[in-house]
Amino acid sequence: MSCSEKGYGLDLCMLKPKPGLSRLATSPDSVEASHLVSMSSPLVSPSQSRLKYMSLGVLVLQTTSLVLTMRYSRTLQGEGPRYLASSAVVLAELLKILICLLLIFYDHNFSFLVLNRVLKEEILNKPMETLKLAIPSGIYTLQNNLLYVALSNLDAATYQVTYQLKILTTALFSVSMLGKRLGLYQWLSLLILMTGITLVQWPSESLDGPAPTPLSAGSQLVGVIAVLIACFSSGFAGVYFEKILKGTTQSVWVRNIQLGLFGLVFGLMGVFVYDGERVRESGVFQGYNPLTWTVVALQALGGLVIAAVIKYADNILKGFATSLSIILSTLISYFWLVDFDPTSVFFLGAVLVLAATFLYGYEAEACHQPQQSLDWRPTTSHSTV
Question: Which residue of 36, 64, 191, 380 is 20 to 30 Å from 80, comparing CA positions?
Fold first, then answer.
């Protein structure tokens, strides 16, 4: 985020929620580019410091576990048909809506009357505001389905490193759509990022000789294309969502319910258009097992967990969490899933991607430091994890 960008507040006073909880923003998708709420304060207590470093572990655990469980669930050989990714996306959206409803219910002292009034006033009585979220919701639904495709055809390490390309797409859309300005180090980090991702995708046999791999060249190409489309859709939808949020007076929980409702519609359309025949043959829940439900829960809860974490974190910590997550995914893919054969070129590219993530986050954090004050209005920022 550039030095010239100004923060904007989300006025939640009209809803009179409990302090603290609804200051957090949730992510419309869990792996994926989310717009998060960060709190700036010049004073850091020992408890806040502990929470900051505890948040590092939570963020690393969430990011790594989602990618690895999704990858493992898509490659696990079992009896019967494999579960439908489109149905998992729909269930994750439904779970997100239920969680947001519970949070609004909690925010207003467990009052059904207030909950009903908030939903009526903020959703039903504002149809144009709700319709604005149809575009990003449809794109996020496409993106979530693409991530299943990507992890069905790429190992977790390659996927995570390549998916950092969303930093570049988000930056470019921010410049073109919001008129933001990037600092010198941010442009340099984007150049390093492109170089690193190019090396990660470099054909291994050209430099290190032929290496056996359980994935065919065709399936790898499908996976890479899916990640690239997901990166562009993530960047566009994220910036479009940020543009909508500017000047809004709606709670972030209400916004996520609106996104989820459209996500359910688009998701169900995807289920019956692309998997309709399989649903008629074996049902919506075909191939579901405890691991599948774990993936659905992680995808639904991911954005909420990251939102809570970012309250105590900053861009540098997010970059550190991204780095640790990529390293853990690489190690687990190599030693446990046994679907990844690293090369020297991959390691060089991964190091460049990690360096670019740190550099981009450091520049953004440096831009925010002079603006810290006792003003506790939440501001949005891009999650690059």
Answer: 64
Nearest in space to 1 (alpha carbons), one of 369, 365, 244: 365
> 361 by DSSP, 3-state: which?
helix
pLDDT per position as a tens digit, 153-195: 988 888 888 888 888 888 889 888 888 888 888 888 889 888 8
Among 311, 382, 377, 374, smallest CA distance to 41 is for 374
Backbone angles phi, psi at 96, to 5 degrees: -60, -45
Alpha carbon distance 303, 61 (integer Å): 13
Tokens 């929620």 correspond to what residue? Answer: 17
81 close to 287: Cβ distance less than 8 angstroms: yes
84-121: pLDDT as tens digits:
999 999 999 999 999 999 989 998 889 999 999 999 98
pTM value?
Answer: 0.72
Measured CA to CA, the distance from residue 211 to residue 343 in angstroms comes to 9
Angle at CA of residue 45, ends 41 and 51, nearest 5°: 90
Nearest by Cα to 359 from 231, 195, 183: 183
- Unique residue bearing structure tokens 């921010």: 174
> Which run of H or of E encompasses 37?
strand 35-38
Q: List pLDDT tens digits, range 248-279.
A: 777 778 888 888 999 999 999 999 998 999 99
Angular region, 16: left φ>0, alpha ψ -120 to 50, beta rest: left
Cα angle 91, 23, 116; round to 5: 60
Distance between CA atoms of residues 262 and 273, nearest Å: 16
Looking at the DSSP bridge assignments, the partners of residue 35 are: 382
267 and 49 in contact (C-beta within 8 Å)?
no
**Torsional class of 9: left (φ above 0), alpha (ψ -120 to 50), beta (otherwise):** beta
DSSP state of 380: E
User: pLDDT, tens digit, for every residue of 43-63?
Assistant: 556 676 677 677 677 778 888
Return the biggest CA–CA distance within the chain: 67
* DSSP three-state, residue 247: coil
Alpha helix stretches (DSSP H) within the chain: 46-75, 85-107, 112-119, 127-131, 134-153, 156-163, 166-178, 184-200, 205-208, 217-245, 252-274, 276-282, 290-310, 315-332, 344-368
Distance separating alpha carbons of residues 67 and 161, to the nearest angstrom: 12
